[in-house]
Amino acid sequence: HIETAKFDPTTPGTDPLTPGNDPANMMSGQNNFYDSLKGQIFNGIVNYSDQTAAEATAGLMMNSQGDSAVFMMETMMDSNPEIIGDVMQGFVQDDFNIFNHFENTGPDNFNNNTTSEFPQVGTNPDMQNFKAEVFKDMMTYSNDNTMETMAQLVAGADTETASLIFETVVSEQNNMSVDGAMPENNFALDLMDNLSNVDPSIVDAMYENQGDLVDSMMDTAMSNVSASDSVAIANIISSSENDDFNEAVFTGMASNNDSDLTSNVFVSVADSSPESLIAMASTNTSLYNDMVSDVSDTGTTAASLMTDIYNTAGYTYTDPATGMTTTVDTT
Description:
By secondary structure, the protein is mainly α.
């Protein structure tokens, strides 16, 4: 009703909301007034709801048409951006694709005899920029659940939106660096770790089709890692079935020259996903040997560790140093 009222004819000069007689100024004045009014109504509903602000906001967006949902998102990002992570988490928990909702539903129009002059959201050339702003705010006002939520957004998104999330995380994490020092939160690593839990096949598929983008994500992730990140890195490797991707992660890790990190990840992957090490050793022996040299287990060599891996998995292994073949039947 508020939207359709904006287009009701008024007599120029008699409505205090219409400045002057210029139609353009009249329309601008009306738009500004009604946008302000809608914002106040929206914030009032949220503030006085018996739900949390995030729950109320998400509920209103899901039950509104596309352009109104966009307006609510913009209003929230302007007046209460701290809740954006919880709002997006609400959409994920309800299996509600908010971006499809933005793009695929038309404007509110309860008067069928009135033709709205608002464009369909899906034709808005700035929609990708708007999505990027949402993802940036999620990082700026992140909480402990934000990157898990973002991973679930990637899993449920189209290719274009999933790529945009990756691009935004890489650019924003690098933009947050101060004097070359990366931000405290390693968003790129957290996203890849959570995505490996949500659906690791997405990482493998993106690496096949957008290898440079995934490499950029991992380069950003690995630029600020330590031994405390061993579990996350091991999970990323163990969850992937793409040998080329895993080798790239191993290479990035080795370039940090952190023996504790390498040792922790190597031993963890040997336990959870020995086939990943086998594949890497078969294609890049020098990398494998360099990594094994960092393993803290005294007396472990590349050959002995590989023998242990193969024996545990029930494989046949030929020691390159002695030429001796070992076969262990684990059944």
